[in-house]
Specification:
Length: 347
Amino acid sequence: MSAVYVWIETFEGAANPASWEALGAGRQLADAAGVPLTAIVLGENAGAIANEAAQHGAEKAIVCEDATLHGFRLEPYAALLSHLVESNQPKAVVAVGTNSARELLAASAADTNSGLLTEITDMSLASDGSVQVTRPAYAGKVISEVTIDAAGTQFLLLRGRAFTPLDVDESATADITTVDAVLAEDEIATKIEAFEAASGTVNLSDAAIIVSGGRGMANNPAEAPPDAEDPVVWKAKDGFANTLTPLANVLGAAIGASRAAVDAGFIPYAHQVGQTGKTVSPDLYIACGISGAIQHQAGMRTSKIIVAINKDAEAPIFKLARFGIVGDLYEVVPALTEELKKRLGQQ
């Protein structure tokens, strides 16, 4: 086994900071196996990003800056990663489970007839060389411990924010190897025309703090204007904008939502946390007016601290929360926001 590979995800010539979490996790396996920790950096500005990866713990780096890799497309990325795996037989290929990483590692695992595990929250190497991982199962109700056979390369997708990046060493360098792309442009079916990115919001997957609203957002005491098409939806949208957003701004948090809130049209799907939305693991998760159905818990139960605010003292979310407030969110949240402003010196 030649190394532990860590895919460094990039966008427009910059690394996704979540990749440093993957290097931190990969370091554990590489040290236990006695092999180098190798960063795989593909695309625009790959050489400079490889040097950055060295500062985050990579001893070696494999880079390719071919124009076919500028912008993530599955075909050229998977073809090159699969080629590297087949040629070098690494112990493992590790990445944080973003959408792109899920596509890439799944495709390469299939190409190389290798195993793949997702949503990993802890892992280690046994004395016999087998990889032992911990991951949630059955919508997070069960914690599964899996032992993977020592033979062959293992593809490992980590749950975001489950692993800690290594300390940055600005003097560190890596042994960099440059490789050629496997596919030429005329062999690639997909083309990238442009990117349209959302602005002004915090990415839920990266957020350290999330303030989420649920069906209870419709209980806003504010009066809907006479011309409101749906007064209930208006009240909930107003609650997200004028009650939850001020709290999120004080904390530097992202806004999340339950499926019930999204399905009712209170807030766009991009904010949905849960089994059919985003899976998050922030340091602090504040659930406002969310009952805590198992589908929602599946997306946020690994949060380090959960605070629940709900009028129903029997709501399932209280069984998961470390701190619970039984009360009207439209009374509790503004009071909490004002107190936090005072304590954080924002008034």
